[in-house]
Each structure stands twice: as C-alpha cells, then as structure tokens.
Amino acid sequence: MLIRKLFKFENAHIVRNCTSDRCKRSIHGHSYKVELLLKASKLDHGQMVYDFGLLKGVIKDIFDSFDHAICFWQNDDPEYIKACKTFSARWVSLPVSPSAEQFSRVFFFLAQQVLKSTVTQNGEGDVEVYSVIVHETDTGYAQSFMEDIENQQMGKLSLDQIVFSDQVQQEWADQEMYEKLKNGIKFQNPEVDLQVQI
Ligand SMILES: [Zn+2]
C-alpha cells in the first residue's frame, strides 16, 4: 500500500555542467512540487499507512527549508558560494548539484532519515519511503527509488553535508531538529487513545 503527500516550495539554483546554457550560467528559480510516496505492508490503528498529519512535523519543516532559498553544490566556485551566503539569508548547501534528479535523492534521503528516527505510537507497520518525485516544471520531473539513494556514482548523501543557513534553522519549530537527527535522538509521535477497541 502506498500513500502520497504533496509539498510545494520556491527555490533558486544554477545547474552546473548541464547542456542548457540558461540553466548553467544564470541563477533562476522554479516552483517545485515534491511528491513523497510512503509504503507499508500493514495499516495502523487508524487503518492508515501513516497519518498525513504526522507529515506536518519534522518532514514538513525540513522540506520547507528549501522554500525561498538558494541551493548550491558545495563544489561550486567558492566566490559564487560566498556571494550566495552573503546576499541570501536562506540557503542550502548540498553535496550534489541542485538538479531535479538530485533533489529527488536528497528529499528521499532526508525523509528516510526522519522516518528511521521516529518512534511511532499508533500501531504503524514497516513504513518507509518508496519513492520521491520532484516536479521542477509543469512538464518535467525526476523520480528516485531506494537504489538511487545508495548509488555512489550519483554522489554520496550524508546529513553532515546537507547544510542549512542560520535563517532557515531559526524558522524551524524546533531549532535543534537537525542536530537531533544527526545525533540519532528520536522524534516521538503523539500517543493515541483508541476510541474503538481492536
Ligand atoms: Zn533550473
């Protein structure tokens, strides 16, 4: 069983080394749509894969970090990176280029890390990320699966190398959220009083 949750944000980037001249030489933005697909082989006490309301917590805050931010590849020209950090309060530094393909890997990876660090309380089963689809435009999207996240040729992903600016962090509900994630401190979902015995 799959469920799908849609997130939206605006983000600016340059995609180095791509074929399109406009994309690789000019800062430009997209209105992104991200579809997070979760799967499980059993349902929770609410007979759901995973309550959509639970996706409004840490995962939403992490995905929202990319909104009205500029994303750059950590290997880009140091002068460009310095300018991004100087002139944009909201920025995200990535170990990979901010293409739609890599965004789909990064969001898959981040959501997967959050789910692994979450203690569920309502009888959820083996909930995991099945896929992430990132729509960069109305007509073009990239979709990643588990094997793409582990594919080293596509670039290694790690929490330490995904860095959020101070301004981004200050806007999180829990400003320690990312440090907790990096340090393996668990997030606890709310307890649920059952209204109908099962
Ligand atoms: Zn672009």
Automatic annotation (TrEMBL):
A Pfam match: PTPS
Highest taxon listed in the record's lineage: Bacteria
UniProt keyword annotations, A-Z: Lyase, Metal-binding, Zinc
Pathway recorded for this protein: Purine metabolism; 7-cyano-7-deazaguanine biosynthesis
Signal peptide: none
Required co-factors: Zn(2+)
EC code: 4.1.2.50
Catalysed reactions, as listed in the record: 7,8-dihydroneopterin 3'-triphosphate + H2O = 6-carboxy-5,6,7,8-tetrahydropterin + triphosphate + acetaldehyde + 2 H(+)
Any one Gene Ontology molecular-function term assigned to this protein's record: 6-carboxytetrahydropterin synthase activity
Protein family according to the UniProt entry: Belongs to the PTPS family. QueD subfamily.
Protein name per Swiss-Prot or TrEMBL: 6-carboxy-5,6,7,8-tetrahydropterin synthase
